[in-house]
Protein 1
Amino acid sequence: MARFMAVAISDTHDDTFLDRFKALGWYLDDLVLYPINRMTRARRKAAWIASAPSLTKRIAEYRPQAIVSLLKGMKTVVEDAANASGCRAPVYSVALPGMGHQARSSAEMAALFPLLPRA
């Protein structure tokens, strides 16, 4: 995903992917601030829900103009956190670029890039 996005945002001239990302006015944040990939699906979903209040606070601080969830399954939790923060920005979701979904995720991100605000 980072490789695809780096190419897509290559019109900026900073040295690193995250610098280019920030220069566009974008934030990269995790819903859950600790590793959950080795958990069962049920425990991951419970971690998403438990982490929503923390994300709500961060969204209130960021005041984003758009939000993209990099996992379709957590979009509702992200939308709920955005709404609870008072944020009325659109919330999009794309397929996670793993487990064979790289092409789908890349295509979804490519379609989404023109819709995202830039600083």
Note: DSSP finds five helices and two strands in the chain.
Protein 2
Amino acid sequence: MAETFGSTAHGAGRAMSRGEAKRRVHGEALLREMEARGIIVQVASKSGVAEEAGVAYKDLKAVVDVVHRLDISRKVAFLTPIGNIKG
């Protein structure tokens, strides 16, 4: 508690900046990939999808494992997202 001020990771964290993600991920291709997986996406900007691509973030399992191993937080459940709103 003292080491973390009572806080823990609230997400995986970015592995690359939004700008880098926009340069490396093609929004149109990502939308097709997501559609093939049954994910419905409605966006005003395809580059907005690219900056939030999964590859732009650190591996969530690795982050959770670290905070669990260091006794910062405990793993209690695995949740599967059913939606995401960005705006």
Note: The mean pLDDT is 88.
Protein 3
Amino acid sequence: MREIRIIPGEGLAEQTHSRRSEHWVVVQGTAEAAVDGSVSTICRGESIAVPPGAPHRITNIGTDTLIIIETQIGSNEGCLKRQVSSKSKATR
């Protein structure tokens, strides 16, 4: 489990994980989450699940710093595929 902070207008680049799922819970702010081609807006107190193998990204569409709690379930070893994006500035 980890906390991720994303400044307004920025986000995490699209990525996939073949051997693990993720679950994001918004603690502060408003996010646009794209998971396997489906785009959703998630706000404080809401969450979204990312199944293994699903392309996913998250962007801060609000005016405050986006804070999410990310829970990972499964193996991290050798499973990450990330797309390069100019909008991938976040702190972990």
Note: The CA atoms of residues 14 and 83 lie 5 Å apart.
